[in-house]
Design a protein that fits this description.
This protein has 459 residues and is an alpha/beta fold. Helices cover 36% and strands 13% of the residues. The chain folds into two domains: 182 residues, Aspartate Aminotransferase, domain 1; 241 residues, Type I PLP-dependent aspartate aminotransferase-like (Major domain) (Aspartate Aminotransferase, domain 2), CATH 3.40.640. A seven-stranded mixed sheet has the order 2-10-9-8-5-3-4, sandwiched between helices. Helix 6 links the parallel strand 3 and strand 4. Helix 7 packs parallel to helix 8.
Length: 459
């Protein structure tokens, strides 16, 4: 039966959602369990984000008509949306997102196997290693899975690990190690700084450690830890100690010379400076770390996170041979492949320099506004994010809400000692590398205007 045109139009009008339909009221957060406090503000604007210590909110609605006119021009395939400038996930390039729309394919089919193999080989270039005994891993999971890989595979119960404490995420790494039975010693620094080489040397001289862990950029504070001199110190004072780096917020925006600096493990994730949607745990381990895995006296206390289970799979994929232990995410691998091709199309040194230039611009603007950073020492400030102390009388929840209305999303604090006293500004990937974007300039202007709206006057 063929419907008459006017009947079709009538049906269509009835099926459409009325533009005037009232928005459903948000639920009363007091009736919901505490676990909702862990839900990101991007999903539920009435809930606190990230940790129980955070208090920021977004406004109930964001009028896309208020977003910068350039937004639709610079994001050709993406609908207008608030610019995401948190320390990850970051804004994504169109080509990376489009590559995820690849048709469904077998994870052991020749096409996907070749793509995955190329991805693993490109990771060697990103980490700057040519050592054939080094082993890359790409697993479905978040950056946190990297901690489990280290704790379950390289450390046996009762072995000593020295954790350099710079904030919330180094604390988390220590907790993960303890779960697997490691004997953890934390060398903690005051908020906004890092342990210094003399005290690290003293600790290494007092006890033999199986591994030392360092959070290259602690996303909770914006503190950057230096790796080259640290690694040289460890190799001199305790050469048998494995050097493990949490590079979740540093890989692809801070220099990491895996071979040149003698690192044994770097764990990271897809959604930060690498510029790929969240969902992949990415890591590189040295031949020395792989030997430590082989020489374990006990089997790894994990199944999915067992490097013994995954090593032959990764080797086969890189050799373009089909293999199976658990199903990977083909769409995310395609996105990662695209992101890595973009990264490696230019010298890595240029990429690091561009992030430093953008970081210097942000930090100068912050200083010019009369604001202070959590990481006070310029030598200890990350180049992919900035943690900014709030001025007296300005609440983070209010400031973030006003910023969001202007189409800019910053993150609240997550370090439990100072959570309500600061905000975090992520400046990584395409937001600083794509010349067609004005993300950083727009964010700095929005920040200045929002502070004024909060009643702030520069001294």
């Amino acid at each position: 039966m063929v419907l008459l045109p006017e009947v079709s139009r009538s049906l269509f009008r009835r099926l459409r959602v009325p533009a005037s339909m009232p928005r459903q009221n948000p639920p009363d957060t007091g009736k919901h369990p505490a676990r909702l406090s862990l839900i990101s503000r991007h999903l539920a604007p009435v809930y606190p984000i990230n940790t129980p210590y955070t208090v920021e909110r977004l406004p109930d609605t964001i009028e896309t008509s208020l977003l910068p006119k350039a937004q639709s021009r610079k994001m050709s395939s993406q609908p207008p949306h608030p610019t995401l400038l948190i320390p990850g996930p970051i804004e994504f390039d169109d080509a990376v997102l489009q590559s995820m729309s690849h048709f469904s394919e077998s994870h052991v089919g020749a096409g996907f196997v070749a793509k995955f193999g190329e991805t693993l080989s490109m990771l060697r270039k990103l980490f700057q290693t040519t050592d054939p005994s080094a082993q890359p891993f790409v697993l479905s999971g978040s950056g946190t899975l990297g901690w489990d890989l280290v704790a379950a595979n390289l450390i046996e119960p009762g072995e000593d690990v020295l954790v350099l404490g710079t904030g919330y995420f180094s604390d988390g790494f220590a907790d993960c190690l303890r779960v697997y039975g490691a004997n953890v010693t934390e060398l903690k620094a005051p908020v906004g700084t890092k342990p210094q080489l003399p005290e690290i040397e003293k600790a290494l001289s007092e006890k033999k450690y199986k591994a030392i862990t360092v959070t290259h950029v602690d996303t909770s504070t914006g503190v950057l830890s230096e790796l080259k001199q640290l690694s040289a110190l460890v190799h001199r004072v305790s050469p048998e100690t494995l050097i493990i780096v949490d590079g979740v917020c540093s890989v692809a925006c801070e220099e990491i010379d895996f071979d040149g600096w003698g690192l044994d493990g770097v764990v990271t994730a897809s959604q930060k400076a690498i510029g790929c949607p969240a969902g992949l745990s990415i890591s590189m381990f040295s031949g020395r770390a792989m030997k430590a895995l082989e020489n374990r006296k006990t089997p790894p206390a994990a199944y999915f996170a067992s490097m013994k289970n995954w090593t032959p799979i990764m080797k086969n994929y890189e050799a373009k041979k089909p293999s199976y232990f658990a199903t990977p995410s083909p769409q995310l691998i395609h996105a990662l492949h695209t992101a890595l091709k973009q990264i490696l199309a230019s010298p890595l040194s240029d990429r690091f320099a561009a992030h430093k230039t953008a970081s210097d611009k942000v930090k100068k603007a912050i200083t010019d506004l009369g604001l202070k950073q959590v990481a006070a020492n310029p030598d200890e400030q990350a180049h992919g994010m900035t943690a900014i102390y709030l001025p007296e009388g300005v609440k983070g929840a209010d400031l973030l809400a006003i910023l969001a209305k202007k189409g800019v999303v910053f993150a609240g604090g997550i370090h439990k000692e100072i959570a309500t006293k600061y905000i975090r500004f992520g400046h990584m990937g395409v937001s600083v590398l794509d010349p067609k974007r004005n993300d950083i300039d727009h964010a700095l202007k929005a920040l200045e205007e929002s502070l004024v709206e909060c009643g702030y006057k520069k001294a």
